[in-house]
Specification:
The protein has 3 helices and 23 strands. With about 400 residues, it is α+β, with helices and mostly antiparallel strands. A hairpin with a 4-residue loop joins strand 21 and strand 22. Helix 2 packs antiparallel against helix 3. The chain is globular. The chain starts with a strand and ends with a helix.
Length: about 400
Amino acid sequence: MIEGKLVNGTNPSVPPAKVGIEAIAPAQGMSVLKSLVSDAAGKFRVEALPTDQPIMIRANYKSANYLAVATFDSAGKSQVEILVFEPTTSMEGIRVEDEGIAFKLAGDRLLARETISFNNQSNPPRTFMNPDGNCRFSKGPGLLEPPQLEVTYRKDGMPVSQSLLESADGKSYYSLYPLRPGITTFVIDEQFPYTGKTYTYRKQFYQDAGSFEIGVIPQDMTVSGQGVTKIQTDPQQNFAVYSGGPVKAGSEVTWTFSGGTPSAEPAPAEPMGGGEPATGGAVKPAPTDVGRNALIIGPLLLMGFVVVLWFAYNRMQTAAPGSDSRAKELKERREQLLTYLADLDRQYESRTIEKRDYLRQRENGKRQLRRIALISSNTKTSGTAALNS
């Protein structure tokens, strides 16, 4: 049994009455186990639920979903409190905190991963809901496949896949995922043609951006465009970083990508657990949708870690000694990467990814873990030196 209460985070004196409540089983594909409506005071109770699996409570308040995870005690009971907010169509108090795009050469294709984070600091706190879209992405020329979108609410949240809607003019995509108080991060994956080792990308900015970053793999791929400057090259990790901005909302930019030497396959690495992956055999696994997506998303995810780590390193070099927030952020990135590697092992064990791709992606992941360790070591050393001085 779960007993819960909805609390109005915008105006606590106004109870969220008659709100739709659902008990959800994440392990069963987010299937709905029970549905009900809260009372006039925002209270609710859900009974006859399984306690041997995670259960989430979802409340839909004025078109926005709010979630809480139920933790059962030994008696099979759980208490939850869900904070909900009044909606707004005003962007006042909401700003773009980070924006960047990573590109990776993959044969005759250019894989792109665009990331944009919104920080909702509205006062009083409200959830931004715009029927015309809460986050909009420019549609690049020659898009080869429908883009994929994942959204994460807060840094400790879990990424969720979301549907994208195409604009009436066919020039952009938008998401109706609400911008609740705090940080919401949108990540979109796209694929473009890279015929003759060149591609011209056009992007329209829908929000003001103080600056933006472009990461590219391999490092010898060049990016040209008005106001774009290369600011970093990392031969060891084989990536380069360009920057630009500021850019006003409504502005359109054009970037031309050219050249690039395909990355060499890394030497086979010893699998986790010390055992050698099975080889040979009469059955060759055919990748499922998960496996095929892993071949595309995996390298981009790792590339995202590379770019994030590079920025983290440079920020840490100038941070004050004892910067707990930076250390915490780096720790979170490490945990995310470990989760990625564990999932990669599961994919290999279930034969949804081929050995060659498994070894390559795992080796890249290990490199990023070593880079995290190096950054952490440098940060501690710099902090100690600064304190001694």
